[in-house]
Amino acid sequence: MPEEKLSIESSVRKLTGRTPKFLDHDKYKYFSVIMPVLADTGALVFEVRSDGLKKQPGEICFPGGMIEDGETPQTAGIRELCEELLVSPADIEIIAPLDILITHHRAVIHPHVAYLRRYDGAFNHDEVKEIFTVPFKHFLKHDPIVYDTEISVVPCQGFPFDLIGDENYPWYTAKHPVLFYLYEDKVIWGLTARIIQNAVELCRQSSTAWT
Predict the structure, then answer these.
(1) Going edge to edge, which strands form the sheet with 145-152?
(2) Which pLDDT tens digit goes with each residue over 31-53?
(3) How confident is the model over 71-80, as pLDDT tens digits?
(4) Separation between Cα atoms, residue 39 and residue 29, nearest integer Å
(5) Quick check: helix, strand or coil at residue 11?
(6) Dihedrals φ, ψ of 141, to 5°?
(7) Which CATH architecture has domain 26-206?
(8) Of 13, 136, 185, 209, which residue is the least packed, with the fewest Cβ within 10 Å?
């Protein structure tokens, strides 16, 4: 066998048995989110983000944040839940992971649903402006309102069109649904709404509900 062929085969065979990751996984940011369900009422707990936060101030969300080195998505979610709602890990029961959400801006979100016991309504005022609850049954009975946005590719200045031979190349475009749930005077939308919708769909598929 020629030396070059042997070298290539040797290199390729080193890949045997590897576990695949998604391409460019090291260029993404990873987050964990907990959808807290009050064990005594079956209501979901929502946060209104502090007006002093740099990102998404005043928006409605679930407790969550970036996964730190050495953490699993679940341990990161529990840590964030404890930090934001001032609860003890002993009062948190993780029920199940929901489906992983990968966004178009390179964020990977690991949501979980958890029972929260003995919650007294406290929260970290540095991160949270207020909290409110919504019965989970509300989301089982009311589907979200859906509006489409469009995602398109816009080449940056200096893009080498000469290498692809066409300045009018038909770049891929896609519709991106944005979900809205309305409850009293609250508008729950975006990623939080998508997490709720996923939980609802999983409950309907399994004929169960966290109520």
Answers:
(1) 145-152, 173-183, 186-189
(2) 999 999 999 999 999 999 998 88
(3) 999 999 999 9
(4) 31
(5) helix
(6) -95, -20
(7) Alpha-Beta Complex (3.90)
(8) 185
